[in-house]
Amino acid sequence: MTHETTTVPRQQRSPARPLPPLEDAGRAGLFTAARTANRFTDEPVTDAELAEVWELARWAPTSANTQPARVLLVRTDEGRARLAEHMAEGNRGRVLAAPAVAVVAVDRRFHDRVPEVMPPMASMQQALEADPDRREALGTSGTWMQAAYLVLAARAVGLAAGPMAGFDADGLDRDLFGDADGTGSWHALLVVTLGHPDEDSYRPRMPRLAAEDVLRWA
To answer: Which Gene3D superfamilies match (predicted)?
Structure first.
């Protein structure tokens, strides 16, 4: 049986919110002038700044609003030392010298929160429980999206970010997430140093691929 498709008149929908384009300074701060930070000043990163970063990053889009990312904020010397033990040799010094570090993890039990964050699709919780491959793919892709937003959010509040993937994720999970027996649900995907950049923070800009090398039109 087929049903006639009807279109809801635009005036009956929720009014569209204006999306004014960012001015050049905003675009530069988030994209064109922003780079991965390698060094920071001694100026501390406050808890208020970190809270502001997450207040922006938490609005990242994720499939069915599942929000699989979890973040460990490392702010103490002891915490940085523990984290540095699990970093690749070339990244240890960066972690130890950074005023703050965010460890972005995927919560492998993220689907338990589906009834809370997406009530109309509450049954998705059981579907994902029965399909670990789909659950892993959904959780990983969503966490990467949220991690990207976290980097942009840090820039938006005036901090520089240094995302790094060189670390022993399993060792980090056991040590910092209390996953000694392998049953914990958090699994680290990305480490991001945060702080105020110093004069030598940035390396020369490397080339970006041209539009004609990466874009296709349909």
So the answer is: NADH Oxidase
Conformational region of residue 105, where left means phi above 0, alpha means psi within -120 to 50, and beta covers everything else: beta
The domain spans of the chain are 43-195
Per-residue pLDDT tens digits for 48-76: 999 999 999 999 999 999 999 999 999 99
Q: How confident is the model at residue 201 (pLDDT cuts 50, 70, 90)?
A: confident
Does an H or E element contain 164, and which?
strand 160-164
Which CATH class name applies to 43-195?
A: alpha beta
Residues 126-130: contacts with CB under 8 Å, at least 24 apart:
none
Specify whether the CB–CB gap between 159 and 195 falls below 8 A: yes
Q: Which two tokens stand for residue 108?
A: 């492998």
